[in-house]
Amino acid sequence: MKVLALFSLIAPLASAVVIPDTDKVITYDGYRVVRIATHGRGQAIEKRLKTLNAVQYNFDTQERIEIAIAPEDLRKFEKMKLEYEVLDEDLGASIVAEGGFSPGSAGRKTISSLNELTPAAFPDLTWFNAYQTFEKHQQWLVDIQSGFPENSELIEVGRSYEGRPINGIHLWGKGGKDSKPAVLWHGTVHAREWISAMVVEYLTYNLITGYSLNDTQVHSILDNYDFYILPVVNPDGFVYTQKTNRLWRKSRQVRSSSCIGTDINRNWPFKWDTPGGSSKNACDETYRGEAAGDTPENTALTKHAETLVANKGIKLYIDWHSFSQLILLPYGYDCNRQVDNYERQMSLANGVASAIAGASSAKTRFKPGATCPSLYKAVGGSTDWMQDVGKAEISWCIELRPSGGGGNGFILPANQIKPSGEEMWQGMLHLLTTM
Ligand SMILES: *[C@@H]1O[C@H](CO)[C@@H](O)[C@H](O)[C@H]1NC(C)=O
Ligand SMILES: [Zn+2]
What positions constitute the catalytic site (predicted)? Predict the structure, then answer.
């Protein structure tokens, strides 16, 4: 058991809580990823699968369940006689091939502020050849900002449960800082969705280099909007996925003696206690927390968004996730409610999907739709809050590559970082010039 001094400072109940030992590295060697056909019996099948040592990938179980099953339980799984196909014979091998997971690598080194770092060379596109550590993402922000000093600043919106900075970069054009409506982007709220930070940074890189090279399209975009870009909003979870458990989703807040972490994307203070669409059980992947907005991460993100709302308002919010290749509009909390400007948001989303499909010979297909019913009921999500409380004109969740677990799910090979970034850049060029 590991008790950090930090916990007793931050969590008032820490002394009464036995912290679960979750520091044991999980390599996923021999785990098999399968797609089970559910034929509308998702809930019943899900219940049976709970008896296995396994990690479920999706929560929309109407048609299928994608799940990684531990080698010791593969025989038990076979005996369930479910209809399934194999997506990955050995998840551990895929994680090794992906290249970014370093079990047991040095501790919990925390940068307390980006100001502590000294800028090095301006980044180039080789950054996008591989997944990167949290520490390197921090340095990257400092490096890219130093090459764009007149039109950007580093921002820190708050601290994670374990005390890491939640930070990013603010970009603006000729009107000067904080003079235009906001474009707000969040990456990596779900720790295992590594592609999201890389794509958000690819877009940032293109905005900065495009502006510096006097690209007229990029100039008009940055002259019209202030960008607030936070590539990793769940740093504790992200660090944990890189050293201990590649498939971790939640934060790392200690709440109970048996389970750790809250789903920050079920914790937003809007219709938070609507039944269904999040979990009250601290052990579940979609655990919503004990009260609306009670995670340090959500508190920081909400406060930051509120300052943008009070200034020039939020024009566009995107929460970047993986995977499924979807462009999701609100609402998640109510499957019968449509956003007031539904036609407009859908028409923009369709335009983005076309731009993505036209970006390369790969013709990647992204599907637009409302979160519920397109994906599933999800309560306490960021896009519902941004739409109704934040009054964002456009509020989306984009689920990046791949389309399904067959493309390796969360373990998207590193050679797909650049293509993912490039197609999304084409999508964003369309959106940012037409919205
Ligand atoms: C971009 O435009 C500015 C202002 O006109 C000029 O000083 C700068 O040299 C230009 N940069 C490039 C790369 O053309
Ligand atoms: Zn996600």
Answer: 399 (proton donor/acceptor)
